[in-house]
């Protein structure tokens, strides 16, 4: 084998090796980015849990405050000589209770919406992570194919150079 042919084959081998290394590096970077996205997805899921927990605590606090306010209102009506279980005091207490229930349903709904947003965000992050992994595998496969093509091209050039 001529020195030029050997150098050409060695260069092709080195180029193929570099291409494969680059593909492996791209895959490693994609895997790393995917792992970060999955970690962020777990964080978003924890945030969704915390939103639910905090929403529940807020509702409990509001219920306690409503009971205290309602009790004070009943006492105030009683001190002023009103019968608290009939007429205007009863109507007012019922209207307050209905309004409070509406507010609590809205608060529960808003909490659920915020939780669902975080869960959706986590799902999107997981999908992006899977896409990054797929891209990394595709880049590695492309690098291997390119390396094989480099070797095949150099081999055929070397063969035809030798034949002439």
SSE map:
Layout: H1 3-79, H2 87-163
The gist of it:
The chain has 164 residues and is mainly alpha-helical.
Describe, in plain words, how this protein is organized in 3D.
With 164 residues, the protein is mainly alpha-helical. It has one domain. The chain has two helices and no strands. The chain has helices spanning 3-79, 87-163. Helix 1 runs antiparallel to helix 2 (87-163). The model has no long low-confidence stretch (mean pLDDT 89).
Could you name the key traits of this structure?
164 residues, mainly alpha, 2 helices, 0% strand, rod-shaped
What do the pLDDT scores average to?
Answer: 89
User: What is the number of helices?
Assistant: 2
N to C succession of SSEs: HH
Number of domains: 1
Approximate shape: rod-shaped
> Which range best describes the helical content: under 10%, 10-25%, 25-40%, 40-55%, 55-70% or over 70%?
over 70%
Unreliable segments of 5+ consecutive residues? none
Terminus-to-terminus distance: 13 Å
Number of strands: 0
> Biggest sheet: strands, sense, closure?
none
Residues in β-strands, percent: under 5%
- Rounded to the nearest angstrom, the radius of gyration is 35 Å
Q: In terms of structural class, how would the helical and strand content be classed?
A: mainly alpha
């Amino acid at each position: 084998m001529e020195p030029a042919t050997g150098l050409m084959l060695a260069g092709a081998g080195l180029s193929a090796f570099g291409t494969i290394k680059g593909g492996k590096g791209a895959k490693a970077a994609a895997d790393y980015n995917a792992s970060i996205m999955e970690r962020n997805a777990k964080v978003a899921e924890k945030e969704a849990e915390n939103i639910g927990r905090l929403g529940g605590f807020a509702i409990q606090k509001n219920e306690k405050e409503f009971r205290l306010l309602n009790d004070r209102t009943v006492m105030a009506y009683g001190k002023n000589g009103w019968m608290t279980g009939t007429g205007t005091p009863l109507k007012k207490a019922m209207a307050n209770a209905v309004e409070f229930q509406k507010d609590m349903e809205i608060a529960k709904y808003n909490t659920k919406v915020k939780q669902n947003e975080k869960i959706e965000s986590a799902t999107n992050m997981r999908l992006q992570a899977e896409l990054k992994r797929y891209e990394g595998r595709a880049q590695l496969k492309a690098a291997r194919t390119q390396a094989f093509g480099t070797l095949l091209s150099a081999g055929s050039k070397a063969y035809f150079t030798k034949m002439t």
